Amino acid sequence: xxxxxxxxxxxxxxxxxxxxxxxxxxxxxxxxxxxxxxxxxxxxxxxxxxxxxxxxxxxxxxxxxxxxxxxxxxxxxxxxxxxxxxxxxxxxxxxxxxxxxxxxxxxxxxxxxxxxxxxxxxxxxxxxxxxxxxxxxxxxxxxxxxxxxxxxxxxxxxxxxxxxxxxxxxxxxxxxxxxxxxxxxxxxxxxxxxxxxxxxxxxxxxxxxxxxxxxxxxxxxxxxxxxxxxxxxxxxxxxxxxxxxxxxxx
Length: 250
Fold this sequence. Notes:
By secondary structure, the protein is mainly beta. It has one helix at residues 3-18; strands at residues 74-75, 86-87, 103-108, 113-114, 121-128, 158-167, 183-187, 196-201, 208-218, 237-242.
């Protein structure tokens, strides 16, 4: 392909990827528009009792990631931080209303299920009030865009993950290490007509006791943000026992 043709096509693709934002000057300007400044950040919240004073800013913390509070951290810039702390300068974005907050529940396995060791099984999760199936590239766009809501129903645009961690036993009170897990899967497709998604755990799990949990996130993998502090949890957690002595031959 001639170089000039390649460059021309690249420019067209670049412009099309910007979409409507390219035609909106407020979305390509590097200046902070006064209309978005939130004056609640001008003061520390006037804490009382055991409350903590809030950080303050006159410019929406626009340069927080180069302030003394960031400890010189590198910008995330769409990357996951596997080895060190980092700073993300992307706004939080749209905040879901209380009546549209998402929720989910595992249908299988249910609490205290006994599964056969080393045998493939499926996790079934029902998700309500979320526009699922929106899953950006986690290696290029992790936390790289604000949380968005559906124009139609104002529900969070995002997806779910399921994660399984081994615990010592059902009575164990030790805090597990979040870096260690037996199985993890992001669900990049939308829920079915009955509101459920199914995830295969190929080869099952070794003998042991595990906890199964969900993680609902926005499209760019950030935790779902809601407009009220006092609320129920968005995610679900189940315990499953997987003991070889309880297994029958497959």
